[in-house]
Design a protein that fits this description.
Helices cover about 30% and strands about 20% of the residues. The chain is an alpha/beta fold. It starts with 8 loop residues before the first strand and ends in a 26-residue tail after the last strand.
């Protein structure tokens, strides 16, 4: 992150847990990062590492019995106004409803299950517009048509009255992006927006998001398990594993000089044009531990090629600087006494709070 740029959002030591009858699931266990206006931040990791839960926490929409147990989520005010700690707002409060959609919007992972099947896509976009803007239904409909046109939906005047199940996967994806942009949010969370579509449509959606982000100077948090997509989209990367941040830094540093063994293992598993034919791709040994059986110490140590007995299985490594703008949570770079200098915990947006 650019230290001279005031962050739009500062996430500090976020923890979100699910207390269940079988035990406590620590879905997000101390995540910290910052994002500035106009920046694209990528969050990567294997399935089940807590990426989506962390983003739902920003909108206070974690499914019960999950809840934020600690941490700070400082959102800078518009036009230099006072910052607000989202973590302290009640999920159903008026203040939180004003933030959802208007300040922070979400493109969910699967548009087919996100759209109501019994209401047209236009009716749902119009409802979102009228919730945050003082316009009548006719004006909201015109705005919805313009949004559909902006995201490349052909024959938008007719498609606005279509149901989600009448659209192709690519058109549904464009329609859900239009809904996310309906109130001109400052931060857009894209939760694996290209997972269920073919590669040609995927390229079109990525190009669309890049274009819209530049036009609106909008910040985007892009969640995916596809490192190739992150290389195209993001300027800064956060690598997560089992609810914790393993490494974060500028995209070039992460791809060309990864520090954490988990990041290196993820990058080795990507096929490339220089890979030898008929040779199996490298894999990360083992699998993500069961949530009720989290390992002691570093969560990645049972699968780590650099495991140090008596250290990695006993100490939780802090997130420490390993470069000019790169951080890693690994005992290769710090001992138990290392100072935890987490990005997002430096008070960037809090200086402007009222």
């Amino acid at each position: 992150m650019n230290p001279e740029t005031k962050p739009l959002l500062s996430v500090c030591d976020l923890k979100a847990y699910f207390p269940l009858d079988e035990g406590l699931v620590k879905a997000v266990d101390g995540v910290s990062f910052e994002i500035s206006s106009g920046q694209v931040l990528g969050i990567v990791g294997e399935s089940g590492c807590g990426k989506s839960v962390a983003m739902k926490a920003l909108l206070q929409i974690i499914e019960p019995p999950g809840r934020i147990v600690s941490g700070e989520l400082w959102l800078a005010g518009r036009n230099g106004g006072g910052a607000v700690d989202i973590a302290k707002l009640k999920p159903g409060s008026e203040a939180m409803r004003r933030i959802r959609g208007a300040e922070i919007a979400l493109i969910p992972q699967e548009p087919m299950s996100s759209f109501s099947p019994v209401h047209t896509i236009g009716a749902q976009i119009i409802e979102a517009i009228q919730m945050h803007q003082t316009v009548d239904k006719a004006a909201a409909r015109r705005m919805a048509v313009e949004l559909l046109q902006a995201v490349g939906v052909p024959m938008a005047e007719q498609r606005i009255d279509a149901y989600s199940w009448q659209l192709s996967g690519g058109l549904r994806q464009r329609a859900i992006i239009a809904m996310g942009l309906s109130c001109n949010p400052r931060l857009l969370i894209a939760d694996e927006p290209t997972t269920a579509i073919d590669v040609t449509t995927q390229a079109q959606i990525l190009n669309l998001l890049r274009r819209l982000q530049k036009q609106r100077n909008m910040a985007i948090i892009f969640i995916t398990h596809d490192l190739g997509v992150i290389a195209q989209m993001a300027s800064y990367v956060v690598v997560m594993y089992l609810g914790r941040v393993m490494e974060q830094g500028a995209v070039n540093d992460i791809f060309h000089a990864p520090k954490h063994p988990y990041t290196r293992a993820l990058l080795r598993s990507i096929p490339n044009v220089n890979s030898k034919p008929h040779v199996k791709l490298p894999i990360i040994s083992g699998s993500i531990p069961h949530p009720f059986n989290r390992p002691e110490g570093c969560p990645f140590h049972p699968r780590c090629e650099s495991f140090m007995a008596g250290k990695c299985d006993r100490q939780i490594p802090p997130l420490v600087p390993v470069g000019d703008n790169q951080f890693a949570s690994c005992l290769l770079y710090s001992g138990a006494e290392g100072e935890n200098l987490q990005p997002g915990c430096g008070g960037g947006v809090r200086k402007g709070k009222s």
